Amino acid sequence: MAEPQLLFDYTGHLPECPVWSESEQALYWADILEGEIHRYHLASAEHTVLRFPEEVGCFALREKGGFIVAMRSAIWLADKRGLLTHKVCDNPSNPELARFNDGGTDHAGRFYAGTFWAPQDYNGALLVRVDNDLTPKVIQCDILGANGLAFSPDGKWMYTSDTPQEVIYRTPLDEQGEPGKREVFRTFKKEEGQPDGAATDIEGCYWSALYDGWRIARFSPEGEQLEEYRLPVRCPTMVCFGGEDMKTLFITTTRENMKQDELAKFPLSGAIFTLPVSVAGVKKSPFIER
């Protein structure tokens, strides 16, 4: 069985939201707490960083170039240099208590961004969708920490996770991509890790980064665990597929809130790993504006 390997010599604070650019053959990701979007070009090993005025919870590449970026207070369009050009909407949560967190695009090129309710005293987070005409809409509530967004290859299901609640949900989508009633896909025991960021493969399986679980795992469309891969760090945060054949899994990890003794023992916390897999991932659409 293949083992995760380092992408390159890098450790971040809270790397999240890895996004593969097929046209550039490059990996993008956010470091949420540093307010950064990173780019690493695999062939040249060129690493560049764009800095933003607030935490970058999640983002997507735009079909027109640049990014759509969910920061703490608002969702913005930005050009390829990271310059904010148009505010799409304010954070519909209380931005002092809930920053944007996990997100991405669906097959139609619409952008989703969930929030994380920091006080954790009730389910105060939500999931927002930005349509192709830039209209925002809250599509789910009753969330503590939004994560795990991914879509089945046929577009009939949306997967999400609520990390602090240790649960993965799936939600049926109609022909227009509108969500129905969500249902529990799988729950976890504490020792299994908490389901964080995720991606789907072309066989309809769901790959989850299990935060605090030292591993990532692949689940069948019925929720059965099929595979797991152990990591040399405690907290993976998200996975995405990439590479020329879409059979490379990129894995972000974090060192947020870790004490110096843990970092000394596990210095790769915050690194990005790669893993060759036998099945290709579902390609992600860029954000499409009309």
From TrEMBL:
**Residues annotated as binding a divalent metal cation:** 16, 147, 196
Give the signal sequence positions. none
- Give the molecular function GO annotations: calcium ion binding; gluconolactonase activity
UniProt superkingdom: Bacteria
Pfam families reported in the protein's UniProt record: SGL (PF08450)
Q: How is the cofactor bound?
A: Binds 1 divalent metal cation per subunit.
Q: Which residues bind substrate?
A: 99, 101
Q: Which residues form the active site?
A: 196
Record's keyword terms, sorted: Metal-binding, Zinc
The Swiss-Prot or TrEMBL record lists the needed cofactor(s) as: Zn(2+)
Question: Residue limits of the SMP-30/Gluconolactonase/LRE-like region domain?
Answer: 14-254
Family the entry assigns: Belongs to the SMP-30/CGR1 family.
Q: What is this protein called?
A: Putative gluconolactonase
